[in-house]
Structure to design on (111 residues):
């Protein structure tokens, strides 16, 4: 696991950047829109490598079935799955955005 201070140091600027980015987005993205997913993933890939290589305590999230990916993100957002950082990350997205992230990460090949 990463120390809390490092997680906070990484997450807070990322949150600020992503809030600014989301404010500039068109009103909605189509369900499962890979291009939108790639855009939104900018926040995720500081921790989860798009190569699918695992670093530190951060799991790989590429190549998953989209439904499994969405289910995990919803479980974090609903606080059914425990992890303060991922709960905060997951709770920000609409269903369309989660589908877009699932489509994007699902399209990447594990190493
Ligand atoms: C600051 C680092 C960080 C950022 C940014 C981050 N994550 Fe995570 N993520 C983690 C950590 C650490 C875990 C492991 C949490 C746990 O133990 O439950 C995790 C877990 C996950 C899991 C579950 C993995 C598994 O094997 O069960 C998914 C899916 C996920 N993150 C998706 C995302 C997405 C999508 C984004 C961007 C919107 C994102 N994460 C942003 C650190 C991060």
């Amino acid at each position: 696991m990463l120390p809390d201070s490092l997680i906070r140091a990484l997450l807070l600027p990322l949150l600020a950047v992503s809030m600014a980015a989301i404010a500039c987005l068109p009103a909605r993205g189509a369900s499962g829109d890979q291009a939108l997913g790639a855009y939104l993933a900018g926040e995720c890939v500081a921790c989860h490598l798009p190569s699918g290589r695992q670093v530190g305590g951060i799991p790989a999230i590429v190549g998953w079935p989209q439904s499994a990916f969405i289910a995990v993100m919803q479980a974090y957002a609903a606080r059914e799955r425990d992890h303060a950082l991922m709960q905060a990350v997951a709770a920000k997205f609409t269903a369309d955005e989660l589908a877009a992230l699932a489509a994007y990460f699902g399209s990447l090949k594990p190493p």
Observations:
- The longest helix spans residues 4-24.
- Residues 4-107 form a domain with the Cytochrome Bc1 Complex; Chain D, domain 2 fold (CATH 1.10.760.10).
- The radius of gyration is 13 Å.
